[in-house]
Amino acid sequence: MNLLKLSILFIALIIFSWAMNFFLLKWSKTLGRKNEVNSSEIRWSDAYKPAIGGISFYFVFLISLIAYYFVSDQSGIDHNYQIGIIAAVSLGFFTGLADDAFNTVPWLKFAAQFLCGVILVYFNLRIEFFEIFWLDALLTIFWTISVMNSINMLDNMDGITASISATILISAAVCALPFGESALFYTIVCGGTVAALLGFLFLNWHPSRIFMGDTGSQMLGALLAAVGIAFFWNNGSIIDEHAWYSKIAIVLTAFVVPIGDSITVTINRLKRGQSPFVGGRDHTTHHLSYAGLSDHFVSFVLLLISCISIALIAGLQFVSHDHLQFYTSLLFAYPLLCISFLYSTTIWKKAKQVYAAKHPTTSHA
Known about the structure:
Layout (H helix, E strand, L loop, with lengths): L2 H25 L6 H4 L15 H19 L8 H23 L3 H17 L10 H22 L5 H17 L7 H21 L8 H21 L10 H11 L1 H16 L12 H7 L4 H21 L8 H21 L4 H10 L7
Helix pairs in contact: 1-3, 1-8, 3-8, 3-9, 4-5, 4-9, 5-6, 6-9, 6-11, 7-8, 7-9, 7-13, 10-14, 11-14, 12-15, 13-14
């Protein structure tokens, strides 16, 4: 499939995603109103906005699949990983859809996330780190659950999750370049998802009119977990030696924003004696806002961090073997610095004062 056809498909899917979300807003009545009827959940925005954007993601995902199977030559292709990704993404979507519509119990979501990890392992899309099957299988399941939760947790302010997810998928596309036509499945499916996210962002950028909901975040989490395994954990073409520290450096760089936010929230909530899995206005995005940044600027700061990650990962394609060790050290240093920065937002004087004023009970717990 040539570049022109891919470009036309990409633009068409952006338009389709925008149009679908636009019309979903017209008829939405109750689906996605979890943020209105569930008083225990805390969102950044107090205004009701339908959480139905994730529906368009799945429709575009299906269209991308049809396009792939229509234009590609299937002879000699191992379909195992494709089936695994489709099954995990579908399970994530329907689990999120059920949660948005019916406010299902937390253990059901966790069980679905666990099953997504099992599905990826079963269809041979597992992390190759320890080179011991059961350890790699456990790591894959842990990774899948962690990514699905971190993407869900990051969905706390307009435009953040969609834009960051798009940059992670673009980073994967950069890693897929050496594979050419053999990575066409990922190219079309991930490219289609990026198009879906861009179309959605027209209505989700601050001030938003629509949320993606768990429908979107769970589906995206499953897809990003699978893509992360294929192109960050297991992509031996990026770094020839691909030692354990190289894998971790690439993964941290690609997922630096969701990892940094999840680590920050988890540490601070545990310090306050709270559950890390209950919603709240204590994310890094919120503390940047407490420090005086506008919602727009918060989005741009995190997007800039993620775009630099793309550039660093892209740089791997051009680093000579002699400079590889130095560059790998840089890949390690960048996400660690970013995660430290994101955590530091919670201890900035102004951010702490504003947070304490807004949450007098939790801030002193």
